[in-house]
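Lab notebook, bench 4. The sequencing result for the construct came back, and we need a structural model before the next group meeting so we can plan mutations. Quick request posted to the team channel:

Model the 3D structure of this chain.
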Amino acid sequence: MSPVVTNLIEDLRNEDNGQLIDKGKVIDRLLDLRLAAEGHVAIVAIIDARLSNVPGKSVVEVAWWQETLTELAAMGEHELTV
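Done. Here's the predicted structure in token form:
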């Protein structure tokens, strides 16, 4: 995974401290990650799956968002070892 994507994930992981985050903000961030991850098929597939299943009507639990970022970071680390 590119350093740009890795840095973006790390920045996003450190950004939210509350328990809820605006759903629109989550979708925007996922789209930003998708754009940055262009060419990384596995990462884009995870992002697409998450985009199609963002929970909540107007807010998302930060725990779900952090889990998503952890999954993307783990996939990125896996790509580096393959």
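DSSP finds four helices and two strands in the chain.
Will bring this to the meeting.
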